[in-house]
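Field reference: sequence -> structure
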Amino acid sequence: MARTRKISKERGPMGPWMLRIVKAGVIAALLGVMVLGIFVAIARSEIDSFEDLKASPNGQMIRIRAADGTVIQSLGPSFGRWLTIDQLPSEMKDAMVAVEDRRYYMHPGVDPIGITRSVYVRAVEGRWTQGGSTITQQLARNIYLNSNKEFGRKIREVILALAMETKFSKDQILELYLNKVYFGGGAYGVDAASRRFFDHGAEDISLAEAAIIAGLVKAPSRYAPTADAQAALDRAKVVVEVMQDAGMITAAEAATVEPAGVRLAAEAPQDSVRYFTDWVLPQLDGLIDETEKPIDVWTTLDLKMQRAATSAISANSPRGAQGALVSIDRDGAVKAMVGGTDYVTSNYNRAVSAVRQPGSAWKLFVYLTALEAGYRPEDMVEDKPVEIDGWKPKNSGGNFAGAISLRTAFAYSKNTIAAQIGQDVGTSSIANMARRFGITTPVNTMPSMVLGTSDTRVIDMTQAFAAVAAGGRNVTPYGIKKVTTIDGELLYAAKPSSSVQLVDDWVAGAMTDLLQTAVATGTGRAANIGRPVAGKTGTTSSNKDGWFLGFSSGLTTGVWMGRDDARSIGGLEGGRAPAQAWAAYMRVAVAGRPVEKFATEVTFPEALEGEEPLLGADEMLLFDENGMPIEGDPLMDDPNLAPTTEPEPLDDAFIERALGGRRDQRPTSDEEGPRADPRGQTRPF
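Structure field:
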């Protein structure tokens, strides 16, 4: 008994201390809970309402689509449509809960089991490898905090998560989470992610697609299909296994899920197509007022044509030269646009922004003015030395052909004839014709303007040629067909532009006659593509600019090449590299279109002796189309200059019908007396 009492006396003092410790612990816990409750209450009062949290965030998503619907560029953060908890597919909800927060419906916003597991793994492995954050904590962090791994931030995250759980239901929290979490590729929310990666809304999502999206949250930059498609698919398989383990799907259902069979949305091209999107995007300000809702911009761009255009410019531009191309359909729709040889190294759009001299391509306006004034393609003119106020134009090759038809003068791009036409009809009339056909840059009226000394843009020149192809009616280039919200609400639809007759149809027909001869037998022979083509070359002083513009089968295309610093380049003549690039593109662009004969019957001009250098038969071109010495490298023969098919000789009776009468016999330059034109005026030559 004594021994027992002694032991009791020895142990007795420990009892009160243990009790005190327990009591202190309980009191501290109660105080902690009270303090936490106070902080949670304060946080709850500061949390936005559910409706406010649903409000669209700042920043508008704009998706630009090609003519076939392919997304070619996406701008701004993508938020997609807001889907309510009932609209969200069960596959998506189950996949997200399974992989991110299996006990979501059991915890109060913080998962003690998950935190304990995370701390244990941290102690064993010496680093944080598993997160203990619940869906509610992630939502709190995404909305109100940042992702810095700091203890203070983690405490605030816990407080906000508990506050959210007291303010919102589980369904509301899950709805907010699935509509706001970041999934990579600029996409926020499951609808945006589904559209970004699968090109359809989340309401139509499959189980395999849901697994891919659910797997992104852990590391969007690593698992996004746009970053690593294989990693995204491998991660999706893990999600499917987790869903099966959580009992959300059966083993049989899991076996049918094939993430590898999911069709991912095509990646938007990042090179030459950007020249086009840079052109159309600024036009939105004048078309729609919507600045918040995500929108789709449906454009006219044909990706097959765009690829062909990019390849043609890249393959045919002389070394050191830039190139530009614009292709316009008969209604004005821009089907392809290339503003340079490489967008990555230079995003300057030479197709719509650069102003360069068009050279002999400008003769389109010279001859349109002449035809409207009463000239006919078969009229005889005198190719001879000309001096106008001290200016002495020269022909390519440096020689003169004497008496030739107007058709022949155009086909061989005779500068002396253009100069004489300018004297007769007046350079101001030619300038007015250029303005009428869409030239927006300043036009000088000096005598030399007939050879294209006024700067202009590729798109303007292409528009002018398109108007000739349209029978003399204006054609307005456009790139946006319609604009819709991602819900399909129509915000804008392009309407046919008002059509204005710029010149009589017979003038346009006669001009088409001349343009055909330039391709069939003249300076543009390299542009033959095996079907009717009408076009014109252009080369500026000392080979600083090379052009070819023309049309076939309802498609009008303009090509320019040159250096940005306007230095000379060998091979830049319009009848060589630009015409070859034009033909390379057009063979692809019109391949699926029916062959169309022009409304005019062309008569080919006579061949002129001594003009072989112009056609590339000699080893070196001594003069450009303006009669100036070429400073570039010598050019070797090019077999591509040979026409692809033998042109069929056609009847030229169209001119008689177009002019509304019988053609008079015209005296040649050897005959005496001035020649009278249909207006009763005397020709100067």
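Note: The mean pLDDT is 81.
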